[in-house]
Amino acid sequence: MMRKSVLTGLAMVGLVGLLSGCATSDASSKASSSSSAQTTKTVSKRQKLINALPKGVKSTDADLIVVNKWHKHNELSFSKSTVSGITVRSSIVKPLTAFLNGATKAGYPATLVSGYRSVQYQKEVWAESIETYEGQGKTEKQALKLTKEYVAVPRGSEHQTGLAADIMNTTWFDAHNSQLLSSSDKAKGQQWLIKHAPDYGFVLRFTKTGTKSTGIDYESWHFRYVGKKSAAFMTKHNLTLEQYVSLLKSREAAKK
Ligand SMILES: [Zn+2]
To answer: Where is the chain membrane-spanning (predicted)?
Structure first.
């Protein structure tokens, strides 16, 4: 029993290692594919996932754009609309509204806290944070380090895609001074949002197990629209968007 669970654990670690990271992970996994039986086993696991990927989904689909600290983007161009006074990409108005209505119907009204944020806005928040820390007597280096911990790098925040939504259970949010805290997942209403997001094409983007791959700590409130097919697959296999897109790219490369 003991031995089996240790081995399973090792295989899991290997799988996570192969899946994590972005563009470079494919090349490194291929290069080491024959180095040991362990690696061969995990490669076949990856291949199984690739074989099971939903049909008709491509890594280049607009809904699957990856923006993070390693994949920065300049301001993107898309049509915008508002939901509950918050600006989002027009294409997600329907699913987002359905998601929020679903929460209300289930008895857990939710607050849409944030949606689209421009690159310019991120730049301002970034500069403001550095200025504040320097004003508190921190050195330039310290101010930069502290800012990096709490503020998304300009051009590296997913909010610029208009496909991200910070959503909080209203009762919990109001009781905690409108703060975005990961402990909100203790609230039943937040648990409902996390569990049912895929039904509406959303995923919880920054999971506890995905921090290495996303570069962002666990956030129980940040949802990302990826479409129903992708959301179901990512949730079933506990994949971050980075890992999922890497699998899609492998499938596309094999077809060429
Ligand atoms: Zn967010």
So the answer is: none
CA of 16 to the centre of ligand 1 (A): 24
212 SS3 class: helix
The tens digit of pLDDT for each residue in 217-251 reads 899 999 999 999 999 999 999 999 999 999 999 99
Burial class (CB in 10 A: 0-12, 13-18, 19+), 214: buried
Give pLDDT tens digits for 47-69: 999 999 999 999 999 999 999 99
Asked if 121 and 187 count as a contact pair (C-beta separation under 8 A), the reply is no
Measured in Å, residue 178 CA sits from the centre of ligand 1 at 14
Dihedral of alpha carbons 52, 54, 56, 61, sign: negative
Q: According to DSSP H, which parts of 136-227 are helical?
A: 140-150, 170-175, 188-196, 211-214
- Reported in sequence order, the residue ranges of the chain that DSSP labels E, i.e. its strands, are 80-83, 86-89, 110-114, 164-169, 202-204, 222-225
How far apart are the C-alpha atoms of 207 and 214, rounded to whole Å?
9
Residue 130 confidence (pLDDT) above 60: yes
- Residue 33 CA to ligand 1 center (angstroms) comes to 37
Assign residue 151 a region: left if phi > 0, alpha if psi is -120 to 50, beta otherwise?
beta
- 13, 204, 207, 212 from 220: Cα distances, Å: 24, 7, 8, 16
- The two tokens of residue 74 are 């300049």
Distance 145 CA to ligand 1 centre (A): 20
